[in-house]
Amino acid sequence: MKNTSKLPEVTNSIFSVMGQMAHAHNAINLSQGFPGFDTDPKLHALVTEAMASGHNQYAPMQGVYSLREQIALKLNTLYKSDYHPETEITVTVGATQAIYTAISAFVHVNDEVIVLKPAYDSYEPAILVNGGKVVPIQLKAPDYKVDWEIVKQAITPATKMLIINTPHNPTGTVLTKEDMLALQAILEGTNIILLSDEVYEHIVFDRIVHESVAKYPKLAERAFITASFGKTFHNTGWKMGYAAAPKHLMNEFQKVHQFAVFSVHHPTQKAFAHYLKTPNHYLELGAFYQRKRDLFLELIKESRFKMTPSSGTYFQLLDYSAITDEHDVAFAERLIKEKGIASIPTSVFNLDQEDFKMLRFCFAKTDETLEQAATILNAI
């Protein structure tokens, strides 16, 4: 049989490659973005209890209503928004499925989608497999600030969607109120859909406030917000997230969602519906991870790496330009093989794989792991 690939340029993700290398060389793995500690035992118990109580058949397509109710309450309380649980919230198989579904529901052949790079690697394949065209805008190291005038100039009559991510993976930067107002002014009067990846919404530092799209009615009326319980509650393997959007957009989203996955793991939904009733379970997350960030940076302050403290997410970029001129992929591979530590080279997220000599390290690990990693980094 002869087949033509819909994604001929796509290979294994950098996360798989570096993760496999880390395993093969028994390296400390600060590459993939998953916590190195377990989720709350109370949440484990709630899932078990839901199973024992018989919640083992299909959940409603949109998600268990009690969970959608808690999601809407969280959004509306934090951001003074007005999402309705019945029509404007859908529970998804992680944020990645929410992103893919939103793109699939609206992007037609030859539609243009603006992507700010470096960008998480799931965005562009989802655009391409639906026949869309990626319009990349490269952000520059070391501050990775968005030049909104360049974004404005990139908009054409074919622009269907614009994707933002805040707090931002892989750079750890956070969009400001001024950024959101600039974006709002650019999109006003257009038919462009905004897809806002906010999976790290509760992981912000130094008294920075997360500027959710939900806080800006003129943005929210055209936007999907995608989020992840896995990132928030240390259980990425559970693959549980959600999307929020106005009813007229969510209607189209659910048309695709119901035929992609139909519904999401029922007992876990019941558990999260109960767990979210205690807001401190997510409101204390920023302080928890700021301590991790600060510990990691303190431990490596005498190293030859240069760093700007991450403002959000559980990732820290380290500039290695004072150490070597090697391409970041080559250097990352050598660190695994020769030094026993794994990171993510960031050029893979950039336009034309531009190399800023930056590696991404995940500090969502135990203190012991961070101390071991710092010993290695300080010796380079």
From TrEMBL:
Per its record, what are the GO molecular function terms? kynurenine-oxoglutarate transaminase activity; pyridoxal phosphate binding
Domain Aminotransferase class I/classII large, first and last residues per copy: 27-375
Q: Which Pfam families match?
A: Aminotran_1_2
Q: Which GO terms describe its cellular component?
A: cytoplasm
**So which cofactors does this thing need?**
pyridoxal 5'-phosphate
Its family remark reads: Belongs to the class-I pyridoxal-phosphate-dependent aminotransferase family.
Return the NCBIfam families for the record: PRK09082.1
**Name the record gives this protein:** Methionine aminotransferase
- Source species of the chain: Dokdonia pacifica
